[in-house]
Design goal:
It is a single chain. The chain is α+β, with helices and mostly antiparallel strands and 191 residues long. The protein has helices spanning 48-66, 82-91, 95-112, 128-141; strands spanning 2-4, 7-16, 21-27, 32-37, 70-75, 144-147, 150-153, 189-190. It has a three-stranded antiparallel sheet, with no helix packed on it. It has a three-stranded antiparallel sheet with strand order 6-7-8. Strand 4 (32-37), helix 1 (48-66) and strand 5 form a beta-alpha-beta unit. The chain is globular and about 55 Å long.
Length: 191
């Protein structure tokens, strides 16, 4: 921290995935930082692989709070998904029962591991109409298509696809769980 009279400036350096280099963030006490972390799909208990990004983001969250930075930390809960539907059928329970049970388990584990809770944890089921609208817009823009009762995102129609992750589309492995005949391209995925 550098002290310039009444103004305290903090410089935080983070790796910028888009620019592929370390980027400086100049922060001031009272400033608000927005953080989003993709949360769990709640069909089972979390494991160490699920916990790793949560711990990393918890460290960042705690650092910012310690530096007197306000944090809006959003972590979604995917409480409807094929895995949840399959689990509900196996256990003869509703998708909501499965989602609620494992959501409670997830937050109990955050508490157990002394992880700061997110500021807001929206559940996918609370945003179904917005998701439908978003998918409808993708269809209208021609970057998604419908086939055999599914809606697919057409990867090749998005020039920036893979840019953030640094993935080369030609080197990506394709999913083997779906028959190619359902998709225009093996890299297209269900929305």
């Amino acid at each position: 921290m550098v002290n310039f009279g009444k103004i305290n400036l903090m410089e935080l350096q983070l790796f910028n995935s888009l620019k592929k280099k370390v980027t400086k963030l100049n922060l001031q006490p009272g400033q608000t930082v927005n953080i989003y972390l993709c949360g769990p799909t709640v069909y089972d208990h979390i494991h160490i692989g699920n916990l790793r990004p949560i711990i990393i983001f918890d460290i960042l969250h705690r650092l910012l709070v310690n530096l007197e930075i306000k944090v809006n930390y959003i972590q979604n809960i995917t409480d409807i998904d094929d895995k949840i539907i399959i689990k509900s059928q196996k256990e003869n329970k509703s998708e909501k029962e499965i989602g609620d049970y494992y959501t409670q388990s997830y937050f109990a584990n955050l508490l157990r591991y002394n992880v700061l809770p997110p500021t807001f944890s929206p559940r996918v089921t609370e945003y179904i109409s917005q998701i439908h609208e978003f998918i409808k817009n993708l269809l209208e823009k021609g970057v998604a298509y419908q086939k055999t009762g599914e809606v697919f995102f057409e990867v090749r129609k998005n020039q920036a696809y893979g840019k953030l992750s640094g993935q080369n589309l030609e080197k990506l492995k394709t999913g083997q769980e779906k028959k190619m005949g359902e998709r225009k391209n093996s890299r297209d995925f269900v929305l």
